[in-house]
Every structure is written in C-alpha cells, then in structure tokens.
Amino acid sequence: MASVPDCLPRIVVLLSGKRKCGKDFLADALLKRLGTERAQIVRISEPIKRHWAEAMGLDLGALLGDGAYKERYRKQMIEWSDERRQEDYGIFCRAACTTIDRPICIVSDVRRKTDVRHFRETYGTERLRTVRIEASEPVRTGRGWQFQTGVDDVQSECDLDDYGPWDLVLTNEQADAVGVLLERLVKLIES
C-alpha cells in the first residue's frame, strides 16, 4: 500500500451505479451537506475527458457536464480509456487523486473492479466506504437514459454488477427521499 498522510484523506467514499442512477446528484448533495472545508468530489472520468477534450479540440466543460454533448463522445472515450487501462489499470484513478486535499474524498464515478482495487491498495480498506446507487430502468429513462450498445453493455457499466458486498446500497428513485439517502451516507462516513 502506498504511503498516505494520516489526515488526507481520512475517508474515501466510492460511489458506483448505472448511468442516470443519480451518482453525481448525490455526490453534489453530499458535498453540500458535509461542506467544502471537509470534503471534495473527485471524478475518475475527469482526466479521461480532459485528455479527450485536448486531443479532439472539444469543450471540456461540456464533456464534464451531464448532457448530449458528452453522450456523443461517450463510446469513443470508453474505448480509448479501456485501452489505457489495459496498460495500467490505475492510470485514471491516480490522475484524479492528485487533486485530493480534504479529509473526506467522494469519488463519484467508480465503474470497475480495478477502480475499487486501486483505492483499496492506495488508501487501505479502513479508509474506504463503498456505496452502490441503484435506480430502476423506468426511473433512469425518466432522467434521460436510453440504452446504447457499446456503452450500457460493456465493462464501464457492467463490471461492478456482481461486485460486493457494498458498505451501503441506496435506491435513488424518489426526489423527496434525498434527505434520507444523505443521512444514510453521512452515517456511513461518520461511523
């Protein structure tokens, strides 16, 4: 295990789930609840999207967002990043972690067993909190999800389907239940 300062990070929360399950929404709400002086969000996809934007002359802000612009390039970004991961499974996790400077780190987009492996090897199991966020296909469809071959049936969406056990599994289907979900997340972090 790599050497990690005792105070940074104290807790690493790994959020996983299918597209449009609400990972980013819950990560943002959790950050707001915890406060930016204590916590931060790290996205494994950020270094991928940064490279893609620079290489292809694309708008990084739009790639980091949650809209049609990103979806146009998603399959190509997945294929490119999978090739890089074959050479070094932790390449994007390490790049994302260079920005960690708070005691609580929320990783909003864990998608592969190798992502979990990287965080376990780097920070140790005692610092990790693994969370699976679930939402039914009809709910995800209502949020704009549409099945896409080469995206929803590949490792980036399916590798953690049989992973477990999770420290916490949340069903994120009702907008008015966000407070309850946040309380469960905070309890997991504070335990």
TrEMBL record:
Keywords of the record: ATP-binding, Cholesterol biosynthesis, Cholesterol metabolism, Cytoplasm, Kinase, Lipid biosynthesis, Lipid metabolism, Nucleotide-binding, Steroid biosynthesis, Steroid metabolism, Sterol biosynthesis, Sterol metabolism, Transferase
One Pfam short name: P-mevalo_kinase
BP-aspect Gene Ontology terms: cholesterol biosynthetic process; isopentenyl diphosphate biosynthetic process, mevalonate pathway
An example Gene Ontology molecular-function term: ATP binding
Compartments it resides in: Cytoplasm, Cytosol
Protein residues bound to substrate: N172
An example Gene Ontology CC term for this record: cytosol
Keyword Aminoacyl-tRNA synthetase: no
Binding site residues for ATP: K18, R19, K20, C21, G22, K23, D24, R143
Documented EC number(s): 2.7.4.2
Annotated metabolic or biological route of this protein: Isoprenoid biosynthesis; isopentenyl diphosphate biosynthesis via mevalonate pathway; isopentenyl diphosphate from (R)-mevalonate: step 2/3
NCBIfam families given in the database record: Pmev_kin_anim
The name this protein goes by in its record: Phosphomevalonate kinase
